[in-house]
């Protein structure tokens, strides 16, 4: 994987796992990879801006099998799922998914997965980048509950962009068009067992196709590419540009175990009044009552384009003193602006606050603005 000087290389050793689609991504010309959940994640095929525009205007295919699944099952499966998240899962029907946070005893964020309710007592947690399987196993072993925690043979692809509906309709029939946002269906694509969800990491219209037989990864990839040919489908990497525009967070950079849901704008995922007890309830109740001392905010950085994305946590300063840092930055082609997320003290989180960013190209002025930067009501992915 080339880095800044074009010389560094990422070696594909056996110590990291390859996805069932790895050979297909190589064949498709992936020229950079990231490490995510101990696996190789395609990071670039052509150019981040070219990939972005193809996502916005057409349809794209992503290998995101790095979104490893934690399966919760057993007689007390629902009870255990309620224990590890502050979101009220009595409002999640079988056949539905929910965006959730998993919190520790201090209210810190362990992960922010998509939870899928397969059966009354059977769930998948489609993970961001952290070892939640180990956390869940550790909680379960002393919980006194009849629950099984495992990692199933499940590997998702994402089909994202305005023509994703056409591709999925051609693959599995018109019933897929009736799926509501965050709902799913079980089906087969040419005999390959899959779960298809109306979810994605783009804030665009899209689906995730969860392969349930890892031996058939390349076969599934080829079938989707074939169905998408007439819609100009292209493999791309997860779009950092589009996810920042859409206000989507990335675990490990925008938030870590040191942060709580209220600080990062995910307080709406915390149902303190839910009937079931959950880990971190006492701490989160206190945090909400006392208020947070810092906040993750959106900022615009006027002037020329800086980068396609940030490679460092650049300092944020006010009146010459460091007050925080950037967690993510990109240039939005459609807004023609540099946009970013930044951690700042709560006193500097007010819209319109002026800040300074110490970029690799020198100090740049910035201003706190609303996020998401594009489509704040999520009208596009729900359409």
What does this entry show, briefly?
This protein is of the alpha+beta class and 383 residues long. It contains 9 helices and 21 strands.
Could you explain the architecture of this structure?
- This protein is an alpha+beta fold.
- It folds into three domains: 22-64 and 157-198 and 216-243, Gyrase A, domain 2 (2-Layer Sandwich); 69-150, Aminomethyltransferase beta-barrel domains (Alpha-Beta Plaits), CATH 3.30.70.1400; 293-372, Elongation Factor Tu (Ef-tu), domain 3 (Beta Barrel).
- It has helices at 22-27, 48-57, 77-84, 132-141, 164-172, 217-228, 240-245, 281-290, 379-382, and strands at 32-36, 39-44, 60-63, 69-73, 97-99, 102-103, 109-111, 114-119, 122-126, 148-150, 155-160, 184-189, 192-197, 206-211, 234-235, 294-301, 315-318, 321-332, 337-345, 354-359, 362-369.
- Strands 12-13-14-11-3-15 form a six-stranded mixed β-sheet, sandwiched between helices. A six-stranded antiparallel beta barrel has the order 16-19-18-17-20-21. A five-stranded antiparallel β-sheet has the order 5-8-9-4-10.
- Helix 5 (164-172) crosses helix 6.
- The two termini are 37 Å apart.
Assigned CATH architecture of the largest domain? 2-Layer Sandwich
Helix content: 10-25%
Gyration radius, rounded: 21 Å
What is the CATH class of the largest domain?
A: Alpha Beta
Strands, total number:
21
Terminal Cα separation, in Å?
37 Å
Secondary structure class reads alpha+beta
What percent strand? 25-35%
Strand order of the largest sheet: 12-13-14-11-3-15
Overall geometric form: globular
CATH superfamily of the largest domain: Probable tRNA modification gtpase trme, domain 1
Mean pLDDT rating: 95
Spans of at least 5 consecutive residues with low confidence: 1-5
> Helix count, per DSSP?
9
Strand and helix order: HEEHEEHEEEEEHEEHEEEHEHHEEEEEEH
Q: What is the CATH T-level topology of the largest domain? A: Gyrase A, domain 2
Overall tally of structural domains:
3
Largest β-sheet summary = 6 strands, mixed
């Amino acid at each position: 994987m080339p880095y800044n000087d074009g010389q560094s290389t990422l070696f594909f050793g056996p110590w990291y796992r390859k996805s069932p689609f790895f050979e297909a991504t190589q064949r498709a010309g992936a020229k950079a990879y990231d490490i995510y959940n101990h696996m190789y994640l395609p990071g670039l095929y052509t150019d981040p801006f070219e990939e972005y525009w193809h996502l916005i205007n057409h349809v794209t295919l992503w290998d995101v099998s790095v979104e490893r699944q934690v399966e919760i099952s057993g007689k007390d499966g629902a009870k255990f799922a309620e224990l590890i998240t502050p979101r009220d899962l009595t409002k999640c029907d079988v056949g539905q998914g929910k965006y959730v946070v998993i919190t520790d005893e201090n209210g810190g964020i362990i992960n922010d997965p998509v939870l899928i309710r397969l059966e009354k007592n059977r769930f998948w947690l489609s993970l961001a980048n952290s070892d939640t399987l180990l956390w869940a196993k550790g909680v379960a072993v002393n919980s006194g509950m009849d629950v099984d925690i495992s990692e199933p043979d499940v590997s998702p692809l994402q089909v994202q962009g305005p023509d994703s509906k056409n591709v999925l309709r051609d693959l599995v029939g018109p019933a897929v068009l009736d799926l509501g946002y965050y709902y799913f269906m079980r089906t087969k694509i040419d005999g390959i067992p899959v779960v298809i969800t109306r979810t994605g990491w783009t804030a665009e219209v899209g689906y995730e196709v969860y392969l349930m037989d890892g031996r058939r990864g390349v076969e599934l990839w080829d079938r989707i590419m074939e169905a998408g040919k007439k819609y100009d489908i292209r493999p791309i990497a997860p779009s950092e540009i589009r996810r920042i525009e859409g206000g989507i967070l990335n675990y490990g950079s925008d938030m870590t175990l040191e942060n709580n849901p209220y600080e990062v704008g995910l307080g709406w995922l915390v149902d303190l009044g839910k009937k079931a007890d959950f880990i971190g309830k006492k701490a989160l109740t206190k945090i909400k009552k006392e208020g947070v001392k810092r906040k993750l905010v959106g900022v615009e950085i006027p002037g020329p384009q800086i980068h396609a994305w940030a490679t460092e946590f650049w300092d944020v300063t006010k009146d010459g003193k460091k007050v925080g840092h950037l967690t993510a930055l990109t240039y939005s082609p459609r807004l023609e602006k540099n946009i970013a997320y930044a951690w700042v003290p709560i006193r500097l989180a007010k819209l319109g606050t002026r800040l300074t960013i110490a970029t690799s190209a020198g100090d740049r002025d910035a201003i706190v603005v609303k996020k998401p930067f594009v489509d704040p009501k999520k009208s596009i992915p729900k359409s």
